[in-house]
Amino acid sequence: MRIWASACLLLWLPASASAAGLFSAPHPTLACGDDAALRALSDAAQVAQHPAAWRKTLLRQGDCHAVTPDMKWEKIANRNGLPLMRRVPPVPGLPPLYFMTGDITPLGAPAPAPVHVTPPPAPAVVETPTPEGPQQQAIDDAPPPAPPVIVQNRETPLPTDLFFMTRGFQKLGSLILTLMLITGAGWIMMRVLRAIWLMARRRKAIGTCLKLAERHRPMLARWYQQAEDGANTATLTQSRMPWNTHVERFTRTTLLPALARDGQSALWPAIHKTVCAHLTTLAANTARAPSATVLTPGIYHQDMNQAEYAAFCSQWIEKAGWEIRPPVATGLGSVIHCSRNGLKMLVHCWIDRKPVHDDVIWQGIKEKTESRADIGAIVSNAPYTQEALLLGKKHRIFLLHHEDIYKFVSGIEVPDVA
């Protein structure tokens, strides 16, 4: 018996709770989807001042509906002092409507007594002579007095209202979504800028390597030709190493030091294949290109004078791929101005049977400084004194024998003299 009583109590509680939250209109009234339209239509003075067409237009624009006492409503929120109600059960096409505060009451509550406005006492009637003519016509044309205005109490929205809580969560969600979008766009922009920066650095590093390869084009072409000849004859000697060995040697002695000076050595693994392919193409094209002029340098003999010795040295330099000017005689020997791929070199030639002293070295230093050459070298048939060797090392002047000049300018023993 107790179990049945408990079950009946549980079944009755939801019904009573749901009924406690429902409202109805105690008398036929008007409800609108726009609170401003409802206030205007509820103001009798304002309605009296406008024609009937104005009221019809406002009813249509404010989405107003007639409400009868048999309809049940559920309160959603309070907006601008008016309750916003929803039909129970919901009716398709009928949105939530605003009610005036006095036009809606909870179900089961007694209907509110109608508000009667006590008219003010009429003033004493004083008999006055009735106006006639135009004065009586003006009195008849005067507008009727405005009806009294009924002031209704407005309910203030509660701070725990579900609408305000939902709106707060909407703002928080919008803020979080905006921050996520900004963060994502910033991350993508950083990745794009980093990729562009790395691409620019790689292109700069490749340009540095290609300039060095172009500067040593004759040397690379000779190495490539030697490697091809050695592969064809199947006899690889020290001077006929494989082409890959030449490329590794050129990379180790020339390219990597140049990249390290510019702080780009870390980019070498990324540009290794591109640079090596360009070196092979450049060397192969240069080796296959026929030489325009074939020089046959003269043979050195001890009875040469200074002019003949300078012409002998200039022929070897020109055979190595340098552009030269005719030798110019100076007080101590002759000077040869050379250039190749934007690199300027000054070679001072001196022939003598005695060791070369430091006065010739000072002359070569002076000529290099005045001509602003990148490379300075002194070539002679005689050995150099110890003082001359120390002076040349201090001022970066290469002291060579004429038998080593071709190797030097070709870059075999000093591949990166710049």
CATH architecture type of the domain at 306-411: 3-Layer(aba) Sandwich
| CATH fold-level assignment of the domain at 306-411 | Trna Endonuclease, Chain: A, domain 1
The low-confidence runs, each spanning 5 or more residues with pLDDT under 50, are 9-19, 123-130, 234-239, 291-296, 412-418
Helix percent reads 40-55%
Assign an overall shape: rod-shaped
Determine the N-to-C terminus distance: 111 Å
Number of strands: 13
Radius of gyration: 54 Å
Summarize the structure.
With 418 residues, this protein is of the alpha+beta class. It is built from 13 helices and 13 strands.
Question: What characteristics describe this protein?
Answer:
418 residues; alpha+beta; Trna Endonuclease, Chain: A, domain 1; rod-shaped; Restriction endonuclease; hydrolase; nuclease
